[in-house]
Amino acid sequence: MSQSMELLKGLKALALLTDLDLQFAALMGRLADDQRPELLFAAAQTCHRSNAGDVCLPLSEWCGRRIGASEGHIQLPDLEAWMRLLRESSVVGGPGDYRPLILDQAGRLYLQRYWAYEERLADQLLVRSRGTVSIDQDRLRQGLDLLFPPQPEVTIDWQKVAAAVAVQKQCSVISGGPGTGKTSTVVRILALLQEQADDHPLVIALAAPTGKAAARLQDAIQRARTDLPVDPELLTTIPTQAMTLHRLMGNRQGSVQFRHDAANPLPVDLLVIDEASMVDVALMAKVVDALPAGARLILLGDRNQLASVEAGAVLGDICGDTLGFTPVFRQTLEQLTALSLPLEEGAVNPLADTVVQLRHSYRFGAHSGIGRLAELVNSGESEAAGQLLRREDLTDIRLLGKSEDPVAVAVAAYRLYLKRIAEGVAVETVFADFDAFRVLCVLRSGPTGVVMLNQQIRRQLVNEGWIPDGSTLGYPGRPVMITRNDHNLRLYNGDVGIFVPDESGELQVCFQTADGIRRVNPSRLPPHETAFAMTVHKSQGSEFDRVLLVLPEHESPLLSRELIYTGLTRSRREFLLSDPQGLLAPAIAKRTTRASGLQEKLWGRGRSGDGECDVNHQ
What we know:
Elements: H1 3-13, H2 19-32, H3 37-51, E1 56-58, E2 66-69, E3 72-75, H4 79-87, E4 92-93, E5 101-103, E6 108-111, H5 112-130, E7 132-133, H6 137-147, H7 158-168, E8 171-176, H8 182-197, E9 204-208, H9 211-225, H10 232-235, E10 242-244, H11 245-249, E11 270-273, H12 281-289, E12 296-301, H13 314-319, H14 327-337, E13 355-358, H15 369-378, H16 382-389, E14 397-399, H17 406-423, H18 427-434, E15 437-441, H19 450-463, E16 479-482, E17 496-501, E18 507-513, E19 516-520, E20 528-530, E21 533-535, H20 536-539, E22 544-550, H21 561-568, E23 571-578, H22 584-589, H23 598-605, E24 614-615
Parallel strand pairs: 4-5, 7-24, 8-12, 8-13, 9-10, 9-11, 11-12, 14-23, 15-21, 15-22, 22-23
Antiparallel strand pairs: 1-6, 2-3, 5-6, 16-17, 16-20, 17-18, 18-19
Helix pairs in contact: 1-2, 1-3, 2-3, 5-12, 5-23, 6-7, 6-8, 7-8, 8-9, 15-16, 15-21, 17-18, 17-19
């Protein structure tokens, strides 16, 4: 082993690298016949960062630093010298080259596949953002007035604005916090689009990243659809079925590729993706590649939530730091909606005309503690957030006292659904009662992590006689979360099921899916774990009436403003926080950013008018 690789092995002990990173660096060194530590460290750290959620490695973060112990360290050069050294290597190429590593002009080093995903996605989104769609403006104006009547409590009806944008644009993004009406808005958008289509209704697909999110989207669409004041025949053209993105794209067993791609596009005229913040750059690039050239794309999500578990922060990068609509498009929107929109200077990128932020929460009113706390967390006001949690006049948020045991709180809440199982009620009712409460954690390990809390909650429920002792594998009421995808069973990482006896008393694991309740024999379950408690990351795409967020006993790199906001906004009615060590304030003060070049590619390149296309959907 070379001296440089020995130095990298020392960095593993500092948790800067893993075995996989070392193996990748060794491979790059062999291919390039180059053992210089600057190359090997860059390769290893690029691999490490991609597995941690970053799309690339910004070399500027490490320039000039001395890494390692005094007896064995790597002294990294300045940015210009480091980039020059890397470009000399046969395994490093520039944008457009086919090399294992790609180095761009800004000093971002990518694994080749991630550079390709990001590049393709940026190009596709920019082309679609510039695409023009022929519409009947008089019909749209009448439809907007019918479906979005005046609301005295709302100064600007951003739902109406979002609908006007989505009908006119081939690609649109609707972002908003909980209760801002993203789903109810998109149902009305679908009605407006089908009205524009006349006798040739659009083929529409509804999708979400997880089975739980797809089931929620389907349920919300079905409920909102019944209230539309439109012709019953038009209602029949609005779909009521949603599915996971993986199922939509067509999984290939043992492959990262899908059945649908650019050569075999999806048979749709419009694709709606909910919970878009959960979609990583690789999956989003593949989905957009598989859209026919003339198809529309609508992304729904909350840009302030945690980014995807895999690499990228696609929704946040697409939303960017928007400066409002371009002047000409803002004028068109005002004519269509009869609303006076804020005049913001500086918007010159056509992408700005595709992004709408919903701002009024219909779920959390002016006196809602959850709504106000979410605003304070998003704006980084940690002191005010702490004071709000301690107010006794707010009944929907509460900070647990230091003597209050989170396990006792959880056990008291979980008794109801276990009682329902003992009574033999319908599985749908069991799920409704189970989803009325959930424990969310920051970490998996440690005294306040998922593993320990699940064990403690189960032990207490056994002591109280709610579940039988002696069986950790399967018992009536055991909630489980799938930890590895099984495409044959259509069960995916993050799906939650409950062990429930069937009519003959045999235990089945029931999953609530977009297609209804699915029952699986316990022996066929893919890898899974008990799910009385889950991490905040795993809770994305779900909502619960009550949430107990348990912060760890020590500082953690995972604690951030986005994590607190995501955990908080999983709750519909009550939010409880266990924070015995006072880590809320530093968490709110820390923002999580993902290294990526997507935002620059979208908002930098998008200033030109090249690549325009005309799309006629009439």
